[in-house]
Amino acid sequence: MSDENNMQIGTCRFCGQTKTIQTIAPVSQDELDNMATDMCICPEAEKLRRKTERKSKIEQFINHNFKDNELKADIHNAIDMIWDSEHKRHTTHQSITLQPTEEMTIKIWKDADFNLRIKAKTVDDCELKV
Ligand SMILES: [Zn+2]
Questions:
Q1: Domain limits at 119?
Q2: Is residue 47 in a domain?
Q3: CA–CA gap between residue 6 and residue 4 (Å, rounded)
Q4: Residues 76/62, Cβ–Cβ less than 8 Å
Q5: Beta carbons of 76 and 92 less than 8 angstroms apart
Q6: Which member of 43, 74, 85, 90 has the lowest number of beta carbons within 10 Å of its beta carbon?
Q7: Ligand 1 centre and the CA of 41: distance in Å?
Q8: Distance from Cα 40 to the centre of ligand 1, integer Å
Q9: Residue 55 C-alpha to ligand 1 middle, in angstroms?
Q10: Centre of ligand 1 from the C-alpha of residue 19, in Å
Q11: What is the distance in A from the centroid of ligand 1 to the CA of 127?
């Protein structure tokens, strides 16, 4: 805590490359390693970054479009199931369809380019009979 320009060493969790990190406050080794992994350009670190980015985009999409907490949990479960099949290339086109209400269908699938896709459809016909 004494030095203003404290230099600390972090290690990439994947390839073991070390990075010198300038810290202004005490940082745990765990955090230093996370930072080093974030900075690293090895393929595994890159892959983790992409996955983290995708996760936060998914999170944003879900929070923005769905209000119900139970439904959000269902969507996350479906995504996990599809992501678990990531290493089994033959299950590329696996898809899960949720129907939380009569008016709404949510389809979650992985496309041919291994992107995760979510599509929610609502029937918003307006009808009145008096
Ligand atoms: Zn690395």
A1: 56-129
A2: no
A3: 6
A4: yes
A5: no
A6: 90
A7: 6
A8: 5
A9: 20
A10: 10
A11: 58
Residue 122 in domain = yes
Which stretch of DSSP H or E encloses residue 70? helix 69-84
Count the domains in the chain: 2
Q: What is the chain's mean pLDDT, rounded?
A: 87
Q: What predicted TM-score, i.e. pTM, was given to this entire model?
A: 0.67
Q: What pLDDT shows up at residue 1?
A: 47
Residue 20 alpha carbon to ligand 1 centre in Å: 13
pLDDT digits (tens, 9 = 90+) for 71-102: 999 999 999 888 775 555 555 557 899 999 98
Instruction: Give the Å distance between the CA of 54 and the centre of ligand 1.
Output: 19
Token look-up 């299950």 returns: 91
**Has residue 67 been placed in a domain?**
yes
**Where are the extended beta strands (E) located within 1-128?**
6-11, 18-23, 95-101, 104-110, 116-122
